[in-house]
Amino acid sequence: MVVHRGDGDGWTRCALGHRHWGLFGAAGLLLRHGDLVLLQHRAVWSHYGGTWGLLGGARNRGETAEEAAQREAGEEAGVAPGSYTVTGSYVDDHGGWSYTTVVAQAAKAELPTGLTGETLEVRWVPADDLDNLPLHPGFAATWSTVRAIA
Ligand SMILES: [Zn+2]
């Protein structure tokens, strides 16, 4: 059911003993507009299906986290790279595997319309309301930290 393939697609284990998707790590795009955050409702069949998280996925070999986050947001939801400005990032390093949250500011709170099968829905959610949603555990663990990156 994976709709796109890269050489980073695959499961691996980090130094903390977790199982993670992304042989070279993974990255996600935290797209913000004012107090709104763009969240992805993940397809039920996906890892932690049914939870809400960031558009993103596995990094490919030689690809920066920023490049991967932007590529995945485009592939999964049709988010155009020219519609936002990257302003910061945060690396959650588990040892042998890391997840980079790439923070970006969108010019407009537009809803992307190029959704693939990995996504049930995308929604702009007020930052204060995120805790009311069932969040992907990886995103939930870093949200309070990455929220402070403007
Ligand atoms: Zn881990």
Automatic annotation (TrEMBL):
Its cofactor is Mg(2+). Residues 22-150 form the Nudix hydrolase domain. PROSITE patterns: NUDIX, NUDIX_BOX. The keyword Hydrolase applies. The keyword Hydrolase applies. It holds the Pfam family NUDIX. SUPFAM superfamilies: Nudix. Keywords: Hydrolase. PANTHER family: 8-OXO-DGTP DIPHOSPHATASE-RELATED, GDP-MANNOSE MANNOSYL HYDROLASE. This is NUDIX domain-containing protein. It comes from Pseudonocardia aurantiaca. The lineage of its organism: Bacteria, Bacillati, Actinomycetota, Actinomycetes, Pseudonocardiales.
